[in-house]
Please model this.
Amino acid sequence: MAVLTEKAKINPDLKPDRLAVGLGGLASILIIFVLGFLWLRDGQATQVVKAFVAIVWGVSGVAGLYFFANMSAESLPERWMKRVQPFVFVGPAMALLGWYLAIPTLRTFFASLYNQQGEFGLSNYVAVFTERIMVEAWTNNILWMIVGTTLTVSLGLLIAILADRSRFENIAKSLIFMPMAISMVGAGVIWKFVYDRNPDIGLLNAVVQSAGGEPQAWLSLVQPWNNLFLIVVMVWLQTGYAMVLISAAIKGVPDDLLEAARVDGATEVQIFFRIIIPSIAGTLVTVITTVIIFTLKIFDVVMVMTGGQFGTEVIGVRFYREMFTSRNDGYASAIAIVLLLAVVPVMIYNLRQFSKRETF
Model:
């Protein structure tokens, strides 16, 4: 009887009246969207009124689109409804990704095939890997990736382990995580003062001078030392991020497993390397790959502190210079595409690792 009732609820036929209402509602909402946009762009109302209308218009309009789109999907025969309905909810996100990500990427790729003289070919890509300044940028980015990632993850792991056993865990973690609230530009400005050659301004030179040393222009030293001083800024910012994720993973290691290892005579060092590290390996991979992506895209710190001078050029700064200073759009587009191709494999690996776990 229950089966018959359930079957009776399923209508395999098209519902034209409901479909007409749904499509009409969609058309009406779209017209309202266009009219609202024109009014917000050209209207003479005050900014407060426009802001209020934009909130009401935007939220209610999106809700109306989903409502009438879902109504239209449910009015279709069951076989088609099951095919169409998922796209009602996923479709807008896919459309936005296509419009703001896929299409600009394709346009950037086509632009990268034309050099500054308008000639079509792969000369921009050859220059990306052969020009001296780009070789320097790639070398520095690799340095950022290796040293920056190693220091960030190592310090995050160490602090997570030590703070987990401290009575002041919350205070310690809050202090370490606090730099994450500072923007990259703000951090660059702060550390530029720290490295200032004048010991009355630069904290580092004040310490060196008090110890009997001579003040140094730390950011204009010979490579790679000045790059290492820049990497310190990123480590200062990102260690808190690594610590939080790793600490959450460590707390997920079963206490019974740790106690059993101690009962069996395992030392804390053995527990760390043979139990804790394997248990949080997935989180470590996620943190490492995320920081690698961050180092490949580094821009703000270098731009604020050195502008890429003194041998500190990185790919992000080189792209900015070519695009907005030299106005070499094709070459800048080629740099962007190569950087995208360098980041995508790491990102895909990161997402696959994340999908294998329910939590960090």
About this structure: The chain has two domains: 11-112, 124-355. Confidence is low (pLDDT under 50) at residues 1-11. DSSP finds 16 helices and no strands in the chain.
